[in-house]
Amino acid sequence: MQTYWLKFTNGSEGHCEGASEFDAVSIAEHLTDKTVAGGDAFKYNQGKNPNVAALPYPAFPMIWQFDHPKHGKTPTFCFGGADCRGKSACPRNYSCTS
Question: Does residue 69 belong to any structural domain of this protein?
């Protein structure tokens, strides 16, 4: 599963996991009854919507997270998802949890 930071049309933001960007957007829209900003213009154009960005780690607030049958959920320890979106690692010199 991949982790994504999503921004909705009402200005709220959150993290959702999915097998792809399309899955994460679809799951988040279904569970929240909100629309991800950019909408249908980017629905089949993955990687282009500026309101959907990959995250290096699961983050708060959480919309949905995959619960692996053997290993469970990946710990959510990123409290600055908006700052980390689009990066491959946390940009801070210290942990968000410290």
Answer: yes
